[in-house]
């Protein structure tokens, strides 16, 4: 039981003499030299804190000493834990997808911060919750799942290679990989990807996505704001390990000369950068979790079994002379299921036509308020992107604040949100499937013209229409990602080789990307008006783009021809 200290007891000189001050001196030295907090170590010395009392020091004691800032409390208490080598126990979370997940105490400390808890209030699938009632899950549980699976894959690789006498992975690697998985989505804004399309960051590094770059900034802010650096050191992590964590969240490609771009780990551990965010072929634990979790909440079948991947994954040196995570050759069918699952999720949920209508409406709301300082928020949305303290307060709750606001500046945004609540959605006028060539050459030229002509019959404005390009693929645009993977066989598990599609089956897709053009109207329409516009789209837009394919993302040998025009009334 901790006994709080009063101001009087803290200042008793005889207590100072009773116990050697070795530990207190180390705490004070760390606060001053490592954290630059000289004023805090002065406070500790002024109140004659002894080694004995140091072990039971609480936040209330620090307040009695005149240290009011909660951030300072965390830094002092975590420094004491580091100096005294006080380690907490792991914690078990019961997850609806993965079951019981055990987390390292350092991960628990990261989870129990405002910056991470914020993810509880950001929907994983954005507007899809308005279409699928079960899609109520958030970035919080997804991040827990990715952190857990990152550790499971790293540990599986370590165990396999340790048994073969290879010391490829150490405990610091595993802990770092877990933290990267846990923190990979810290940078998501309200309604996830919709926010970054409306409120782009001014400077996004080459080959980075918006939320990955903000995730790194938020991770730095989380560590600093919660005084976690001493705990990182307590569990053996140093500055290179922190760099490694951030590099795994957003791995960089090699430069034009093929030089290794990372500092956290050397090229001999290049395979570790494929666990959380695999930029080589897209097979990573991020997708393992969201495939399983999204299918679970959407009520869809998930045909990919990540447990088999964990069972058959190993590290091999590939033809490029680098070490990669490889999978057994017989698992190639499981990997085709992996990428087909991605396609199905996009086709049925992420790019659902009603979901996209709602997303357009939410983006319109964000566009109308991004330069307005909303009551309850420190800065405008655009300003918050570069201020992590302000960004921490941005969640999906933003829409509720707007909806119930009395600010006249938010009137137009409120009206759109009211339409979502009453299911008066933007009107879907149809869609068609197009080729990549048509997409690039025709759509960009014709979009403005189509909007003008659509507006004329009903005396609407061109801006009352939205022409959306929706591209669905296997994750590498029009390329087959399986060709970027490496496999090994039972007879020679040390050698990694590619596995061309022709050697797998003739009943596999030939095309790995498709693009739809959809037309929406922002105005509410009567039935006759809707029919008139749909017919105009059919005759003047969709027939222009209509094409015939012998194959899409389904087996071409089963089709003699497939007319890919689609029109929905």
TrEMBL record:
CDD domains: HDc, SAM_superfamily
GO BP annotations, alphabetical order: defense response to virus; dGTP catabolic process; DNA repair; DNA replication; regulation of innate immune response
Residue ranges crossing the lipid bilayer per the database entry: none
GO molecular function annotations of the record: dGTPase activity; GTP binding
Segments forming domain SAM: 22-86
Source domain of life: Eukaryota
Pfam families in the cross-refs: HD, SAM_2
Keyword 4Fe-4S in record: no
GO CC annotations, alphabetized: chromosome; nucleus
Location(s), subcellular: Chromosome
Main location: nucleus
Keywords, sorted A to Z: Allosteric enzyme, Antiviral defense, Chromosome, DNA damage, DNA repair, DNA replication, GTP-binding, Nucleotide-binding
Ranges where the HD domain occurs: 139-291
InterPro entries: dGTPase-like, HD/PDEase_dom, HD_domain, SAM, SAM/pointed_sf
Keyword GTP-binding recorded: yes
SUPFAM superfamilies reported in the protein's UniProt record: HD-domain/PDEase-like, SAM/Pointed domain
Segments forming a coiled coil: none
Catalytic reaction equation(s): dCTP + H2O = 2'-deoxycytidine + triphosphate + H(+); dATP + H2O = 2'-deoxyadenosine + triphosphate + H(+); dTTP + H2O = thymidine + triphosphate + H(+); a 2'-deoxyribonucleoside 5'-triphosphate + H2O = a 2'-deoxyribonucleoside + triphosphate + H(+)
Family per similarity comment: Belongs to the SAMHD1 family.
Descriptive protein name: Deoxynucleoside triphosphate triphosphohydrolase SAMHD1
Gene name tied to this protein: SAMHD1
């Amino acid at each position: 039981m901790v006994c709080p200290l009063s101001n009087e007891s803290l200042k008793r000189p005889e207590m100072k003499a009773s116990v050697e001050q070795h530990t207190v001196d180390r705490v004070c030295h760390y606060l001053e030299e490592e954290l630059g907090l000289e004023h805090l170590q002065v406070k500790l010395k002024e109140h004659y804190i002894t080694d004995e009392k140091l072990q039971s020091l609480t936040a209330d004691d620090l307040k009695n000493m005149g240290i009011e800032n909660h951030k300072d409390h965390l830094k002092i208490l975590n420094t004491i834990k580091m100096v005294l080598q006080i380690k907490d126990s792991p914690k078990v979370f019961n997850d609806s997808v993965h079951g019981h997940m055990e987390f390292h105490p350092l991960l628990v400390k990261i989870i129990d911060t405002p910056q991470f808890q914020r993810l509880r209030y950001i929907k994983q699938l954005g507007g899809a919750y308005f279409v699928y009632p079960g899609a109520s899950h958030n970035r919080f549980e997804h991040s827990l799942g990715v952190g857990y699976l990152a550790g499971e894959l790293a540990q599986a690789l370590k165990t396999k290679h340790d048994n073969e006498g290879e010391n490829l992975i150490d405990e610091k690697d595993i802990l770092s990989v877990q933290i990267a998985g846990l923190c990979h989505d810290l940078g998501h804004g309200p309604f996830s990807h919709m926010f970054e399309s409306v409120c782009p960051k001014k400077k996004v590094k080459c080959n980075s996505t918006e939320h990955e770059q903000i995730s790194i900034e938020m991770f730095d802010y989380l560590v600093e704001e919660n005084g976690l650096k001493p705990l990182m050191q307590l569990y053996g992590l140093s500055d290179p390990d922190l760099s490694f964590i951030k590099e795994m969240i957003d791995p960089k490609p090699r430069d034009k000369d093929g030089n290794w771009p990372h500092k956290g780990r050397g090229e001999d551990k290049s395979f570790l950068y494929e666990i959380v965010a695999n930029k080589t072929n897209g097979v990573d634990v991020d997708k393992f979790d969201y495939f399983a979790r999204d299918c679970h909440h959407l009520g869809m079948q998930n045909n990919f079994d990540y447990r088999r991947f964990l069972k058959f994954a190993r590290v091999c040196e590939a033809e490029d002379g680098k070490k990669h995570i490889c999978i057994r050759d017989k698992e190639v069918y499981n990997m085709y299921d992996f990428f087909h699952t991605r396609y199905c999720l996009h086709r049925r949920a992420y790019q659902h036509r009603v979901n996209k209508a709602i997303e357009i409406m939410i983006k319109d709301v964000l566009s109308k308020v991004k330069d307005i300082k909303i009551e309850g928020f420190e800065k405008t949305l655009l300003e918050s992107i570069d201020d992590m303290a302000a960004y921490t307060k941005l969640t999906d709750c933003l829409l509720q604040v707007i909806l119930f606001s009395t600010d006249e500046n938010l009137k137009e945004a409120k009206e759109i949100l009211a339409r979502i609540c009453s299911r008066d959605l933007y009107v879907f006028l149809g869609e068609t499937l197009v080729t990549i060539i048509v997409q690039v050459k025709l759509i960009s030229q014709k979009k403005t013209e189509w909007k003008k002509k659509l507006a004329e019959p009903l005396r609407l404005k061109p801006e009352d229409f939205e022409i959306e390009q929706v591209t669905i693929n296997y994750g590498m645009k029009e390329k087959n990602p399986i060709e970027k993977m490496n496999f090994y066989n039972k007879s020679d598990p040390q050698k990694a080789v590619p596995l061309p599609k022709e050697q797998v089956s003739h009943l596999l897709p030939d095309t790995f990307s498709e693009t739809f053009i959809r037309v929406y109207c922002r105005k509410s329409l009567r039935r006759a008006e809707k029919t008139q516009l749909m017919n105009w789209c059919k005759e003047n837009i969709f027939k222009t783009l209509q094409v015939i394919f012998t194959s899409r993302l389904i087996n071409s040998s089963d089709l003699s021809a497939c007319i890919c025009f689609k029109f929905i009334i």
